[in-house]
Amino acid sequence: MSRIHPCILIPTYDNPRTIEAVVRGAKAHLDAVIVVDDGSGPEARAVLDRIAREGLAIVVRRGKNGGKGAAVKTGFEAAAEHGFTHALQIDGDGQHDLEAIPRFLHHAERSPKAAIFGYPEYDESAPALRRSARRFTQIWVDLEIGERGKIRDTMIGFRVYPLDAVRSLRIRGDRMDFDIEIAVKIAWAGIPIENLPVAVRYLSEEEGGRSHFQPFRDNFRFALLHSRLCTIASTRLFLRLLGLDRLARRLLAGRLGEGS
Questions:
Q1: Are 169 and 182 in contact (CB under 8 A)?
Q2: Residue 23 Cα distances to 15, 35, 112, angstroms
Q3: CA nearest neighbour of 75 among 43, 47, 38, 44
Q4: SS3 category, 54
Q5: Per the domain annotation, does 231 fall within a domain?
Q6: What residue numbers bound the domain in which 197 lies?
Q7: 190 vs 42, 118, 166, 169, 177, CA distance in Å?
Q8: Taking each helix axis from N to C terminus, what angle separates 177-188 and 215-241, rounded to the nearest 10 degrees?
Q9: Is residue 82 part of a domain?
Q10: How does pLDDT run along the chain (260 residues), one tens digit per residue?
Q11: Exposure pattern of 133-144 as b/e (b: 16+ CB <10 Å)?
Q12: Domain membership flag for residue 219
């Protein structure tokens, strides 16, 4: 008997040319697929309507666009309501190698309490700016976690979440900052972590590739997030140095409003 009951969770916003192929590719490895439509436009909604009619996935609709993080949170609740214990989250833009799905699920089966994080193996299609941004983010994350390389990449949307554990965390970010915040808080919570490679290819516009990254707004959100997380991490370290571990946990969980 399996130790886990997993589903594949796909948040999507206006990916009409890629989402069906992603759903069909995911379903080839696991029958249970949940798609969260984060307020897509008419073209993408029509594709998702067909996916639902054909029984390819459970399609959950959000009334308006709230961001990737908000869509994943909605997906967590839908997965739990359907009795799933784990969610393998992948993006709907077709960038990820779906042949990695069985390997991630195998590791989740072997380590059911662990969060399994993908880290990207890029081909020549990856923009140099994206690689640089990830390296910069990793410096901050290592400081916040207090351990270098504990999570090899906190921005990729290919990861297995143990639902009971992550649903107990309080994650404020609702957009692209969500991926970073939940990764750091998983580490803070002491949830076991494994890192596995996954191939990533950036699709061209002709192939249906579409980025919803907003350079100014999203980078500003990242800056605010890292400022907040670094402050919390520094406070926790200071209290621990004073031997006040219990107070550190209470302060972080209560007055600063950060579950861990």
A1: yes
A2: 12, 8, 24
A3: 38
A4: coil
A5: no
A6: 6-213
A7: 42, 18, 11, 12, 21
A8: 10
A9: yes
A10: 578 999 999 999 999 999 999 999 999 999 999 999 999 999 999 999 999 999 999 999 999 999 999 999 999 999 999 999 999 999 998 889 999 999 999 999 999 999 999 999 876 665 565 666 677 788 889 988 888 889 999 989 999 999 999 999 989 988 888 999 999 999 988 999 999 999 998 765 555 455 555 555 766 777 888 888 888 888 777 666 666 677 666 555 433 344 43
A11: bbeebbebbeeb
A12: no
Amino acid (1-letter code) at residue 245: D
Q: What is the CATH number of the domain that holds 172?
A: 3.90.550.10
Q: How many domains does the chain have?
A: 1
The tokens for 162 are: 């143990």
Which pair of tokens denotes residue 17? 């040319």
- Locus of tokens 């880290």: 119
Q: In this structure, is residue 232 part of a structural domain?
A: no
C-alpha distances (whole Å) from 250 to each of 8, 244, 257 are 34, 10, 10
